[in-house]
Amino acid sequence: MTVSLALLIPMAVLYACGVYLLLEKSMTRVILGFLLIGNATNILLLITAGRPGSAPITDGGSEEPYSDPLPQALILTAIVITFAVSAFLMALVYRSWKLAREDQLEPDAEDLAISTRAGARAETPEGADEDTDFQSDDPLDSSDLDPVLQGAGRQDEGRSATESAAQADADASAESGAEGPKP
Amino acid sequence: MISLVPLVVLLPLIGAAAALLSSRRPILQRGITVVVLAAVAVIGIVLLISVDTGETLVMQVGGWPAPFGVSLVVDRLSALMVSISAIVLLAVLIFAIGQGLADGDQETPVSIYHPAYLVLAAGVFNAFIAGDLFNLYVGFEILLVASYVLLTLGGTEPRIRAGTTYIVVSLLSSLLFLAAIAMLYASTGTVNIAQLSERIGDLPAQVQTLLHVMLLVAFGIKAAVFPLSFWLPDSYPTAPAPVTAVFAGLLTKVGVYAIIRTETILFPSPELNNALLIVALLTMVVGILGAIAQADIKRMLSFTLVSHIGYMVLGVGLGTAAGVAAAIFYTVHHIVVQTTLFLATGLIERRGGTTSINSLGGLLKASPIVGVLYFIPALNLGGIPPFSGFLGKLGLLEAAAEVGTPLAYVLIGAAAVVSLFTLYPLARTWNLAFWRPRSEVDNYESMITVELHDDPWAGRASGAVTGSTTATRSLSGWMVGATTAMVAVSVGITVLAGPLYALSTRAGADLQGTERYVSSVLGPKSAESRLGPDGELADDPSNVPAEEVAP
Questions:
Q1: For residue B520, what pLDDT band results from cuts at 50, 70 and 90?
Q2: Which residue has the higher pLDDT, B54 or B143?
Q3: Which chain B residues are within 8 Å of A71, Cβ to Cβ?
Q4: Residues B370-402, buried b or exposed e (16+ Cβ, 10 A)?
Q5: DSSP assignment string, chain A
Q6: Which of A164, A165, A162, A146 is nearest to A154 (CA)?
Q7: What are phi and psi of B154, to 5 degrees?
Q8: CA pair distance B479, B370, nearest whole angstrom
Q9: Where is it chiefly localized (chain B) (predicted)?
Q10: Given A74, A148, A168, which is nearest B157 (Cβ)?
């Protein structure tokens, strides 16, 4: 099967840029990355149709090679699906932005839990038993959730992800001092 | 009989449209959803009985013959999965309706819930009966898009946050799947599973391995197999209880189903079996260690879900008929039990006001019925002898012992240990939430408030919990009834384990060797070297042209 470089190179570039953008924290870039990867996959499907330049439609009687219609049907379906999902993603990101006034994704709760747990472990003496595991399970401090729960849009953009992580860290170490007895 | 096949997908889709149109009349909408799912459950069982005689039902959509058109294939495995999924979907739907009635529909915006739920059902069923890899992709997309809507219902921040992870991960796996389909098509010139199965063997070994790995990674993300499972415990627990229940029960199993098909029909060669076994081992162990560390019941159950996916992958990875049969039985058992446990957790949440075992207590006294409804599936999941969980695990371990390689014995040991470890978090939940007196919980009031504040999921609209006073709500009869029905189904699987296991064995035997599937779909003519008396349905002229299910 011969592959046209004119399709192959854009596909590779789109995949590369898409993966790069998908790894960003900003949701807008994640959407763009998804769109690029989606289009790269569509081009990949187009490449599978074989050599370019053959007739799109023949009357069936001619001996000439004609291009394979199936990949085009697959691409159409894939485009429709990508389109619908992108629309949903944009609505989701808009909603997220309305709630949090941030394009950045909130730091992952579990990651915070692990980092705070590691911090707490380092500072508390070895006497702490394994029950600590489900004590320090809940990492987001109240300042993270409260403005959202109360429906107040957060106008100040001061709190960056690292700050909140550091704050959670500090809270956890403060807690771990107070949490002596276990159920 | 053959005309029933497309109805499995069409009924939910038409029902979804009707439910969307009747969004202003909640009673009509609920009625449509219940009737549609009940109808599909009946159709599923009829199909199961009909294919269990040995014939495979193949519907060529639009009357196009097999390699050109879209084939819908119902064999024993498909029919079994469709039936059990429809029953589970119906029970969860009744639970959700009960919850909606009890809450005055504040929590679940009912107008979109029912259509999305039906679309999800259509996607699941479509994936189960797809005889075409691209149709499988479309089925996955239908169910995923519906699941995005259901997961982010209400649009609160925790759900949006969890939904973002889930959606981005799912999209990536879908694109990987699509790329794999493109490559399969480029190398074989077909997307029909039966024809692929004939042609893949002729490809160079490296190409086969590449395609095989791509498909397994794509399905592995959907099935939440270990290195690809981290999205699951983050995203499932935030959704409303009925949504989590149906996701946990069904969505990962669609991935497992796709892995079973990949391993048996598309790539029957055993080259990646050892890799699958190692992945199964890691999934079981890492998943259950995660479950032990969780305080929140929903999160704990999500981790046990990941862990138990490992058992199914173990059965598939053994590569023998007995292994696949045990994996099928275990999948059916796990769909029912995991869903039941999540429904019971929904009841616990209503009675206790929270799902954190730090702040639950005295539930056995407060509502013994919830205790029973939690206890039976918990024992079942943990694999206590009389129950189906034990029988499924026993089947898996026997199949592994038959294989008898050192790796298989390692897996037998790991599976037994993980089974014990599964009991630990379940029993701990029982001890703290049900046996611990309420008064003992109150002694830890200060700690409870701390817990509640930094529980990342505590901000759900419903959980108006402050201090030690928990906002408990009454249980609606429908919710208890639906959960009881699910417990009854899980007990029924135990009682009927003999016939069901025999059915799973026949389904596993069907998948041993690709000839059966191929000759059923393509007809005996294309498979000259084979004796395929059961292939005549493929050319049945009475095929009714039906609507194309692909959008």
A1: confident
A2: B143
A3: 182, 185
A4: bbebbbbbbbbbbbeeebbbbbbbebbbebbee
A5: ----HHHHHHHHHHHHHHHHHHTSSBHHHHHHHHHHHHHHHHHHHHHTT-STTSBS---SS--S-B--HHHHHHHHHHHHHHHHHHHHHHHHHHHHHHHHS-SBPPPPHHHHHHHHHHHHHHHS-TT--TTHHHHTT----HHHHHHHHTTPPP------HHHHHHHHHHHHHHHHHH-----
A6: A146
A7: 90, -25
A8: 11
A9: membrane
A10: A148
Phi-psi region of B425 (alpha: psi -120 to 50; beta: other; left: phi over 0): alpha
Lowest mean pLDDT among B255-269, B499-513, B532-546: B532-546
Residue B193 has pLDDT above 60, yes or no: yes
Query: CA B425, CA B433: separation in Å to the nearest integer?
Result: 12
Instruction: Summarize the confidence of residues A147-170 as an average pLDDT.
Output: 43
- Short-list B165, B169, B337, CA closest to B249: B337
Nearest to A78 among B149, B155, B178 (CB): B178
Rounded CA separation B82/B517 (Å): 18
- State how many domains chain B has: 1
Q: Do A48 and B157 touch (CB under 8 A)?
A: no
* Per-residue pLDDT tens over the stretch A17-53: 999 998 888 888 889 999 999 999 999 988 887 777 7
Query: What are the structural domains of chain A?
Result: 5-56+67-100 (1.10.287), 109-178 (no CATH)
pLDDT, one tens digit per residue, over B198-225 is 888 888 888 999 999 999 999 999 998 8
Q: Which of B172, B356, B454 to mutate to test the interface with A (most CBs of A within 10 A)?
A: B454
Q: Using alpha carbons only, how large is chain B's radius of gyration in Å?
A: 23
Pair A78, A42: CB distance under 8 Å: yes
Residue B299 lies in a domain: yes
> Is residue B306 one of the residues assigned to a domain?
yes
Is there a contact between A81 and B459 if contact means CB atoms under 8 Å apart?
no
> Do residues B314 and B284 touch, judged by C-beta distance below 8 A?
yes
pLDDT 10s digits, B96-126: 888 877 776 554 456 788 889 999 999 999 9
Angstrom distances, CA of residue B409 to CA of A26, B275, B398, B401: 47, 15, 10, 7
- β-pair partners for B296: B356
In this predicted structure, the answer to whether residue B331 has a pLDDT above a threshold of 80 is yes
CB B284 within 8 A of CB B418: yes
* Residue B218: per-residue pLDDT: 93
CB pairs under 8 A between A and B: 149
B interface mutation test: which of A81, A102, A149 has the most B CBs within 10 A? Answer: A81
**What is chain A's Cα-based Rg?**
26
B330 touches B315 (CB < 8 A)? yes
Work out the percent of chain B whose per-residue pLDDT is above 90: 23
Q: Helix, strand or coil for residue B71?
A: strand
Q: B281: pLDDT confidence band, cut at 50, 70 and 90?
A: very high
CB within 8 Å: A145 and B459: yes
Q: What are phi and psi of B296, to 5 degrees?
A: -85, 130
Q: Does A115 touch chain B (CB under 8 A)?
A: no
Domain assignment present for B542: no
Q: Specify the amino acid at residue B407.
A: L
> So what's the pLDDT on residue B358?
73
Task: With a cut of 60, say whether residue A166 has pLDDT above it.
Answer: no
Q: Which domain holds residue B153?
A: 4-535
Going from the C-alpha of B499 to that of each of A12, B141, B207, the distances in angstroms are: 53, 34, 41
Does residue B544 form part of some domain? no
B469 forms beta bridges with: B466
With beta carbons less than 8 A apart as the criterion, state whether B253 and B334 touch.
yes
Span B451-476, mean pLDDT? 45
